[in-house]
């Protein structure tokens, strides 16, 4: 059985903000014809003892990284351009090194269930970014 | 002014660790959800945490006699908030809870004596000692999590008590 994965995120440049916990389900069936990857999503804001709490619940940390970059918005679409940094010592965000020299460009949308038509809007927007960026739908199973 | 309030708790046992986890809600903080382990961290999260718990239900099982809550009236007296509630486990009433809050102060140590004096004026001998949740951290800022930990301890105490036979109620 595939493990239950949760993502915990916090802001590094704004102190006092809640942590963000996210659950992402498996890609939805009927996905092959859609232009974007569609997954069930639950977003939860939490207090800053989230990681201690997750460990107490029985979770263990799989990996961690720092992302630095910019967020752009177009309506409900969010485009994030960021560099991923490897953390050299667990839990220490002061000593990091870039994973690669490139930036990762990610286009995502959080929408109410059933609104699959947003994937068409996403594809239309992605077309506009060519040839600067070539956005493609990823297959998470290939990455696991 | 009086209106109803209800801290309530559901106890769950983790299939992974065997530990007991409490998921609590409090009408004083209607948009929040509290999740805590005894002697462990208390997480404050928004209401979506309940949805996450539905996704995680395969990893937990309900503890025996698991849902307990306190429901009653909320009184405001100058800077004090007093909430008196009936503690129920399922259909049966098991006790009474009294919550007293001194609103202007956020450091427990600074107002404990005042709180005690206020409580003695209407609780007499039933006035409790300083709650254990303050332990070593008398001077840290009070948080709603501290309230929920106290309710968890109270509910656990009540849960462990033998049910009072009808003839014995005063």
Structural topology:
The complex is a heterodimer of chains A (144) and B (170).
Chain A: E1 6-9, E2 19-27, E3 39-46, H1 50-57, E4 65-74, E5 77-89, E6 92-98, E7 104-109, H2 118-129, H3 140-143
Antiparallel strand pairs in A: 1-2, 2-3, 4-5, 5-6, 5-7
Chain B: E1 4-5, E2 8-14, E3 20-25, E4 32-37, E5 42-46, H1 48-55, E6 60-77, E7 80-89, E8 92-102, H2 108-123, H3 144-160
Antiparallel strand pairs in B: 1-6, 2-3, 2-6, 3-4, 4-5, 6-7, 7-8
Provide keyphrases for this structure.
heterodimer, A: 144 residues, alpha+beta, 2 domains, three-stranded antiparallel beta sheet, globular, B: 170 residues, 3 helices, Mediator of RNA polymerase II transcription subunit 18 (chain A), activator (chain A), Mediator_Med18 (chain A), transcription coregulator activity (chain A)
Chain pair forming the biggest interface: A-B, 17 and 23 residues
Beta strand count of chain B: 8
Beta-strand portion of chain A reads 35-45%
Low-confidence stretches of chain B: 165-170
Quote the beta fraction of chain B: 35-45%
Helix tally of chain B? 3
Major sheet size, sense and barrel closure of chain A: 4 strands, antiparallel
Shape, principal axes of CA atoms of chain B: globular
Radius of gyration of chain A from CA coordinates: 17 Å
Helix percentage of chain A:
10-25%
Give the radius of gyration of chain B: 17 Å
Structural class of chain B: alpha+beta
Give the overall shape of chain A: globular
Arithmetic mean of pLDDT of chain B: 84
- Topology order of chain B in helix (H) and strand (E) letters: EEEEEHEEEHH
Number of domains of chain A: 2
Number of helices of chain A: 3
Keywords (chain B): Activator, Nucleus, Transcription, Transcription regulation
GO cellular component, one term (chain B): mediator complex
Protein name (chain B): Mediator of RNA polymerase II transcription subunit 20
GO molecular function, one term (chain B): transcription coactivator activity
């Amino acid at each position: 059985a595939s493990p239950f994965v949760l993502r915990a995120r916090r802001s590094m440049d704004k102190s006092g903000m809640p942590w963000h916990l996210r659950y992402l389900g498996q890609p939805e069936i009927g996905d092959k014809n859609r232009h974007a990857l569609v997954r069930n999503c639950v977003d939860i804001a939490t207090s800053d003892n989230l990681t201690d709490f997750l460990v107490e619940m029985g979770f263990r940390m799989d990996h961690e990284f720092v992302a630095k970059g910019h967020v752009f918005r177009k309506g409900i679409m969010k485009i994030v351009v960021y560099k991923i940094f490897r953390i050299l010592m667990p839990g220490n965000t002061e000593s990091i090194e870039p994973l690669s020299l490139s930036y990762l460009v990610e286009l995502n949308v959080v929408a109410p269930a059933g609104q699959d038509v947003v994937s068409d809007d996403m594809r239309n927007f992605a077309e506009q970014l060519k040839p600067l960026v070539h956005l493609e739908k990823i297959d998470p199973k290939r990455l696991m | 002014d009086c209106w109803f309030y209800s801290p309530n708790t559901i106890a769950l046992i983790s299939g992974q660790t065997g530990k007991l986890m409490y998921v609590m809600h409090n009408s004083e903080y209607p948009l929040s959800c509290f999740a805590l382990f005894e002697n462990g961290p208390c997480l404050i999260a928004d209401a979506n945490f309940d949805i996450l718990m539905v996704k995680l239900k395969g990893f937990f099982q309900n503890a025996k006699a698991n849902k307990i809550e306190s429901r009653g009236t909320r009184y405001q007296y100058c800077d004090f908030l007093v909430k008196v509630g009936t503690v129920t486990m399922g259909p049966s009433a098991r006790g009474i809870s009294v919550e007293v809050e001194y609103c202007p102060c956020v450091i427990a140590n600074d107002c404990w004596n005042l709180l005690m004096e206020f409580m003695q004026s209407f609780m007499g001998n039933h006035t409790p000692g300083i709650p254990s949740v303050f332990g070593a951290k008398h001077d840290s800022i009070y948080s709603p999590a501290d309230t929920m930990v106290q309710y968890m301890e109270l509910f656990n105490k009540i849960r462990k008590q033998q049910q009072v036979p009808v003839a014995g109620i005063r």
